[in-house]
Amino acid sequence: MNKLDIKALGLAIGIYWGLCCVLLGLSSTFLGFGTPLVELFASEYIGYKPTILGSLIGGLWGFVDGFIGGAVVAWLYNKLAV
Fold first, then answer.
1. Distances (CA, A) of 39 to 45, 47, 49, 55, 72
2. DSSP letter string over 13-77?
């Protein structure tokens, strides 16, 4: 059975989720779409706001959150796939 690369999965999910957070913040900034979701995430991601800078801050938080979550999933998978 092949094992998952913990760092690679963490990076992949971190990059994906960080980019999603940036795009959501920017769509909220320029289009007004998704503002309630940005405000919900802002309760966990300090500094995440529907602004350009807030979108970048949210993207950074999203990357960190996604990286940790992806690494935990890969680690758990490797432990259970014996």
1. 10, 10, 7, 11, 26
2. HHHHHHHHHHHHHHHHHHH-TTHHHHHHHHTTSTT--SSHHHHHHHHHHHHHHHHHHHHHHHHHH
**Predicted confidence (pLDDT) per residue in 37-78, tens digit:** 999 999 999 999 999 999 999 999 999 999 999 999 999 999
The count of other CB atoms within 10 Å of the CB of residue 69 is 15
Q: Which residue has the tokens 């992949």?
A: 12
- Domain residue ranges of the chain, discontinuous segments joined by +: 6-80
